Amino acid sequence: MTTSKSYVAWVTGGTGGIGTAICRALADAGHFVVAGYHNPEKAKAWLEAQQADGYSNIALSGVNLSDFDACLAEAQDIREKHGKIDMLVNCAGITRDGTLKKMSQQQWNEVIDTNLTTAFNTCRSVIEDMLDRNYGRIINISSINGRKGQFGQANYAAAKAGMHGLTMSLAQETASKGITVNTISPGYIATDMIMKIPEKVRESIRETIPMKRFGKPEEIGRLVVYLSEDNAGFITGANIDINGGQFMG
């Protein structure tokens, strides 16, 4: 799949399971991709693997996304090295699970900061330039659990639900300026994290999915590419569920 123009895309959490599929899909579409990472050693090996597969149009970004000023500086660095940022995909995220009764303030803060505050930081870092140019694509990767809640994930569900609140508000602020802002809420996707769950537990999860299978990371990547295209310019403020029918609402 290709688009008529080549853009620069900043993908936070780009070296993770879903993030990798997003980066490769955008690169396949002809865009230059800057992939965010957390672990430098793993990121170096990851980039070498992408390059070995022929992806010369992917670079790395190791900024601390929780640091507002660092995000502003990183966005400027990306512009200077690779060109203006046309697309932002917020895919970075962590879990610190536990029932609220047992959840520490640190568990709450870490998840809210990493999964929600970082999205504000990155959006804030690119939005002025997008407004000046009357063009931009912002895609926030939320979760099925931000839609329906999940036992033991009050922090994660709150952060992921908050991402879509950010999406809808920013979409209203920027719709007249050629910028679209949307949310994708994946269900259970067959990343390494899911596939490492004991088989018996994994199969019990699979049975709760009407399609009786896990999603593929590449399916998320293709959806991101579509939302990033010029001809998806009438879609903004939307949440798109991609969960095999596990949650509909």
Q: At the third CATH level, what is the topology name?
A: Rossmann fold
Radius of gyration: 17 Å
Termini, distance in Å? 30 Å
Shape: globular
Number of helices: 9
Number of DSSP E strands: 7
Structural class: alpha/beta
> How much β-strand is present in the residues?
5-15%
Placed side by side, the strands forming the largest sheet appear as 3-2-1-4-5-6-7
Helix content: 40-55%
Helix and strand pattern: EHEHEHEHEHHEHHHE
Annotated CATH homologous superfamily? NAD(P)-binding Rossmann-like Domain
Characterise the protein shown here:
With 249 residues, this protein is of the alpha/beta class. The protein has one domain (8-241): NAD(P)-binding Rossmann-like Domain (Rossmann fold, 3-Layer(aba) Sandwich), CATH 3.40.50. The protein is 48% helix and 14% strand. It has helices at 17-28, 40-52, 68-82, 105-133, 144-148, 154-174, 192-195, 199-207, 217-228, and strands at residues 8-12, 32-36, 58-61, 87-90, 136-141, 179-186, 239-242. The chain has a seven-stranded parallel beta sheet with strand order 3-2-1-4-5-6-7, with helices on both faces. Helix 1 crosses helix 9, helix 3 (68-82) packs parallel to helix 4 (105-133) and helix 4 runs parallel beside helix 6. The longest helix has 29 residues, at 105-133. It is globular and about 50 Å long. The mean pLDDT is 96.
Write the layout of secondary structure elements.
Layout lengths: L7 E5 L4 H12 L3 E5 L3 H13 L5 E4 L6 H15 L4 E4 L14 H29 L2 E6 L2 H5 L5 H21 L4 E8 L5 H4 L3 H9 L9 H12 L10 E4 L7
Parallel strand pairs: 1-2, 1-4, 2-3, 4-5, 5-6, 6-7
Helix pairs in contact: 1-9, 3-4, 4-6
